[in-house]
Specification:
By secondary structure, this protein is an alpha+beta fold. The chain has eight helices and eight strands, in the order H-H-H-E-H-E-H-E-H-H-E-E-E-E-H-E. The C terminus is likely disordered.
């Protein structure tokens, strides 16, 4: 049940808030449960909320409910509308299923250059257990596709997607992996903001203090 006081609050402030957003805001914690990753379902949720990516005059503020959608679904949402020439992602962790989605888009000709910055903690934890060494798997895909993969002391979650005519920026709490938690997203189309964050990525990728895979 949605809290009517919260609904009235948004009405008074004249915000256009989707039902899913309000439910996510007031949802109470439940016991831990396993939620299966379903990219088609996640993208369908986004399409229902947004219809299309933001134009230069639009900014989307989104809160996804538990078991809702994750960062990779927003990237897939963009790819369903237009090809991505350059994709920059900073994240704490990268999942195997998520890198496979990017890899599939690459071989379909929808995605070209990819630059990934992840945490050095993922590198250390993945390499310590052979069964879940996703970092090794991700590194191999990046080498094959001539993508850039760098690990450093990172906890930021920023996504930049440059298409033929647009410069998308996603600021989020969501990592580039499966996301069963409530997450926030700021999704906009801004060349100025894109270029601002691009300076950060170039520093992370080129700076000698970062540890790059070979």
């Amino acid at each position: 049940m949605v809290n009517q006081k919260i609904v009235d609050m948004f009405k008074r402030q004249e915000y256009k808030v989707n039902q899913l957003d309000i439910c996510a805001i007031v949802e109470k914690s439940r016991s831990k449960e396993i939620i299966a990753f379903n990219i088609k379902k996640e993208v369908s949720q986004i399409k229902e909320l947004l219809m299309k990516p933001p134009t230069e005059s639009e900014v989307y503020k989104i809160i996804s409910g538990k078991g809702g959608f994750s960062s990779i679904a927003l990237i897939k949402f963009i790819l369903d509308n237009e090809n991505i020439e350059d994709l920059y992602c900073s994240t704490f962790r990268i999942g195997k299923k998520q890198i496979n989605i990017l890899n599939d888009a690459f071989f379909e000709g929808k995605l070209k250059n990819v630059f990934l910055v992840t945490s050095n903690l993922q590198t250390e934890s993945d390499q310590s257990q052979e069964k879940y060494n996703y970092y090794g798997y991700i590194s191999e895909i990046c080498r094959t596709n001539k993508w850039k993969l760098v690990n450093t002391n990172n906890h930021s979650k920023i996504i930049l997607a440059k298409t033929k005519h647009n410069f998308y920026v996603i600021e989020t709490s969501s990592n580039l992996n499966e996301s069963p938690k409530i997450e926030q997203f700021n999704f906009e189309n801004s060349k100025r903001l894109y270029e601002f964050y691009l300076l950060l990525f170039k520093e992370l990728i080129q700076n000698g203090e970062t540890k790059e895979t070979s």
